[in-house]
Every structure is written in C-alpha cells, then in structure tokens.
Amino acid sequence: MTGTFTDTRMPPRLLAPGGAPADRATHETRYGPLTHTDPAALLRTLAESGLTGRGGAAFPTYRKFVSVVDAARRTGRTPVVVANGAEGEPASAKDKTLLSLSPQLVLDGLRLAAQATGAGEAYLAVEDGSTRLETAVAERDDPFPVRVVRVPGRFLSGQSSALAQHLSGHTALPRHQDPPVREQGVRRAPTLVQNVETLAHLALIARYGADWFRSAGTPSEPGSALCTVHVPGREPQVVEAPFGMPLRRLLPLEGTGAVLLGGYHGTWLPATEAAQLRLSAANLGAGVLAALPADRCGLAETARVLRYLALESAGQCGPCLNGLPRIAAAFHTLAVPGPQGTARDDVARWAGLVEGRGACHHPDGTVRLVRSALTTFAAELDAHARGLCTATDRTPLLPVPDHRS
Ligand SMILES: Cc1cc2nc3c(=O)[nH]c(=O)nc-3n(C[C@H](O)[C@H](O)[C@H](O)COP(=O)(O)O)c2cc1C
Ligand code: SF4
User: Angle at the Cα of 134 (from 133 to 136), degrees rounded to 5?
Assistant: First the structure.
C-alpha cells in the first residue's frame, strides 16, 4: 500500500513524497521542529483551523479538547490522551499507512494534545506494528510516558469506549455512552480519544497555523483528508485529497455501477450520483471510497459485509445481538436470485427495530449501509426476485477478514 497525493495545485501534507518511512531526523528536516508550547494559544489556533475528527464522525476537534479540559477541571482528575490507530474498518488502510510513513507526525500531535489538555499520560493504540512504533517513541523526548498498546483486530476495537475499556484493563467492548469517554474514560479519568490522522493534522496546524490549514479544502470544510480508494484489479491506494475535490477525480467512474462511500458503516450510491459529489466531511466516514463495476452484484457485496458486521457485534445489547444476524440472513436471501418471501420487508422492519437501540453506533452504521443498498440496488432486487442476476463477474471486491467470512 502506498500513499500518494492527488492535487497537484497543493503541496503534500500528511503523505510526504517518496513513500519512505521517516525517522525523527528526516521528519524534523521535512516539517521543522515543534515549538508550540502554550496550551491556550494552541487551543485558539485549533479553534481557528476548523479541524474535525478523521475517525468517522467528523466531530469538531476543538470542542472535544475543551470538553476534556472542562471535565478535568470539574473532577480534579488528570486527563489521559489516546491516539486511535486501531483502524478496525477492514476496507481502510489510511491510518496504518500514515503510521508507517509518518509516525512522528502522529506522535507530535499526541504530545500537543497532552499539552493542551494537561494530560499526564498518553497511549497510541494500534492493531499491529507496535515494535516499529515503540522504536519511534524511543527516538523522542516527550515529557510524559507514551505507551504503544496493541488492540484486538476487531471492527469494534477502535470505538472510543471499547478503547477506553481496553486501556483500563478490561475487554475491548463498547460500553454505554453516558458518561462519555471525554468525561470518564481510561480508569475513569477524562479521556481525549483522537484518530491518528486528526492528530497528524494537529501537528501541522501547530507548526504552520490555521490559515495554512484552511488554504486547502473549502471554507466550511477546511483541510485535506486521507482516503483508501478501492478500484477493481488494483491494490487499494491511500491518497490525500482536499475537501471539495470532485469524487470523480478520486475514483474512475467509467464502467462503475455504484460507489461505496465511507466504509462498512457508510452508504452505497449510484455512480451517476457519486459523479456529482465532492469529498466532504459529511460523506467521508472512515475515508473509504470503493468503485463497484457495473458487472458485479451490489447485493452480494452487501450481504458479505453484513454477515461480517453481524458477527462483529459485541453481543451485549439485545437489538444488536438478535437484530443484526437476522438482517444479515434476510439480506443473504435477497442477494440470491430466486423467491424472496418476506425478506425485503423483514430487512426494512428489523432495520427500524435496531436503529438507535445499541450502546454504541454499530447498529446505526449497519442500518445506514442496509438502507442505502436497498435503494441503490432496487433494480437488482427486482431482478433477483424474478430469479435473474445481471452480474457477470462474481469476484468479491470488498475485503472481509477471512477468519470471520
Ligand atoms: C463501531 C465503531 C468503530 C470505530 N472504530 C474506529 C477506529 O477503528 N478508529 C478510529 O479512529 N475511530 C473509530 N471509531 C470512532 C471512535 O469512536 C472515535 O469517535 C474517534 O476515534 C474519535 O477521533 P476523531 O474525533 O479524531 O475522529 C469507531 C466508532 C464506532 C461506532
Ligand atoms: S450496540 Fe452492538 S456492538 Fe454496540 S455495544 Fe451493543 S451489542 Fe455491542
């Protein structure tokens, strides 16, 4: 997997040219030293930058920092900061690519986050690559302990409360959102969890300022974002692109029937609709863009992903534990040409029953995918009901981990 930059009108930001991992010396030569030390000034710059989280929800980063600072003041507890590099989404490779090419940028962001919130300890949570990252940490002189922690390779491991549970010595499963992790997270301390890409952007904002950050993207959605682009017959590619870039410049849409936008908690769109869209924090999700050729079956792709998502349910909440496998099984019926019985109505009904009923957003993200598939592949659904499938190529496109497929 290589990282590339897409916009020739703007110099690379997170993904430096050359594609070689940067050690500390190379990193400092490339980006310059990190001199920002005043927490109040950093928070002001962060607010002016308009940075939003790149872990899926696009939450304003400044607001989360302030919540953690306020919770620490109220409770008298020293906060904890966590760089979330779990990347549980199987179709995403942006965080692993960033950590492999520019680990020091992420660690700079983690240090800044700790300074701005007054944290006493910091974690970098990853599924793999911990030895290489420990070496990167050892090259630094951070004034507080930074620990690299391995999380289980599961879809839910990167959910913020699951991560806080894991770092507190418990199983990496989500817990109820109230109180939120920013108030009571790791060992009940106010905890700032930020995606590793968000932290890397912060490291550049601290160096070059809010105006520099805003010189890419749009006024309402400033900056660039990392995306994992899936095109059939090609290795997935991680690219950096400014918000506002037309999607058709990121994905070749000729011969494409539909596009998956955001990842397995994202949405399917007809290619004709995707061709009118621009890259936006509102549709970016986990940064996955996948082009499904017109000769493949979107229902079969969705059914495989839904089975995986159902198996990844943490099994703690009834609607998720019972509902997701039922949705996945009914969707499997829809994906096979032939009699569908009540499967279409069942999927729609169960989607309504699980939505908003989980401790975490896993059911909601799954329902989003289901509903978009029912709409985008409506013609294919009708064909399947008549016993026909228009797909001529049955090669799976979207990656689903083997051991759970
Ligand atoms: C089911 C589920 C899985 C998630 N997995 C990840 C993940 O692997 N990596 C990540 O950064 N955020 C993940 N998130 C989002 C985190 O809960 C959290 O919002 C995010 O790390 C915050 O960082 P950000 O504000 O910088 O985006 C997940 C959320 C859900 C609901
Ligand atoms: S909603 Fe599902 S995945 Fe989330 S905590 Fe409940 S059972 Fe686990």
Answer: 60
**53 in contact with ligand 1, CB cutoff 6 A:** yes
Instruction: Tell me the backbone φ, ψ of residue 352, rounded to 5 degrees.
Output: -65, -30
Which residue range(s) make up the domain with 266? 224-293
Burial 61-90 (b: 16+ CB within 10 A, else e): bbebbbbbbebbeeeebebbbbbbbbbbbb
241/321 same-domain check: no
CA-closest residue to ligand 1 atom 20: 55
Cβ 194 under 6 angstroms from ligand 1? yes
Going by pLDDT thresholds of 50, 70 and 90, the confidence category of residue 130 is confident
Instruction: Please report which ligand is nearest the Cα atom of 195.
Output: 1
Count: domains in the chain = 3
- The residue among 91, 90, 66 whose CA lies nearest residue 79 is 66
Q: Alpha carbon of 298 to those of 38, 188, 340, 393: distances in Å?
A: 51, 43, 17, 11
Could you tell me if the CB of 175 is within 6 A of ligand 2? no
pLDDT one-digit tens code per residue, 353-389: 999 999 899 999 999 999 999 999 999 999 999 999 9
In a shared domain, residues 269 and 307: no
Residues 204 and 94 in one domain: yes
CB of residue 1 inside a 6 A radius of ligand 2: no
Pairwise CA distance, residues 270 & 122, whole Å: 43
Nearest ligand, CA 368: 1
Does the pLDDT value for residue 131 go beyond 60?
Answer: yes
**Pair 95, 72 in one domain:** yes
The two tokens of residue 25 are 């010396």
My answer on whether 103 and 182 are in the same domain is yes
What's the CATH code of the domain at 146?
3.40.50.11540
Provide the percentage of residues in the chain whose pLDDT is more than 90.
Answer: 84
Domain end position, chosen among 212, 243, 266:
212
- Range with the lowest mean pLDDT among 5-9, 129-133, 135-139? 5-9
Strand-pairing partners, residue 60, are 52
Kindly identify the ligand whose nearest atom is closest to the C-alpha of 201.
1
Name the region of 39 (left: φ>0; alpha: ψ -120 to 50; beta: rest). alpha
Establish whether residue 56 lines the binding site of ligand 1, counting it when its CB lies within 6 angstroms of any ligand atom. yes
